[in-house]
Amino acid sequence: MYRVEPVVSKSFRIVDLKPNLENITVRVRVLETHPPRTIQTKKGMRTISSAIVGDSTGRVDVTVWGEKAGTLKNGDAIEISGAWTTVFRGNVVLNIGRTTIVKKIDDNAVPGVNDIPNTKPVARGRRGFEERSGEEYE
Prior knowledge:
0% helix; mainly beta; two-stranded antiparallel sheet; 138 residues; single chain; CATH 2.40.50.140; disordered C terminus; five-stranded mixed beta barrel; 47% strand
């Protein structure tokens, strides 16, 4: 009989996110949410919603897939485990899917909305991170 070890998700700060990471964990505050919508993908029609989350190091766009679309709430402090990253329009995107675990955490575990910098991870550049104008994200 084989013993199956639980898969442990690796913790990241937003500044350290880069394309094609899998099974990652972040502790973030939800800064902005958008309602679910249906899109056409290579695999057919899918329901998604989008959001922006952040920590003390920056912000990242989030795509929430399937049944979890629309479940993030503005202002919540959450831990996301089992997420993965992709690239969309040059920006790193954090993805939440069927097997991703999203749970509320203590409000003091992450900075408040006004204490999160307006920087986002991008798929280019030496460190993969660049300053963007805050206008896009406010």
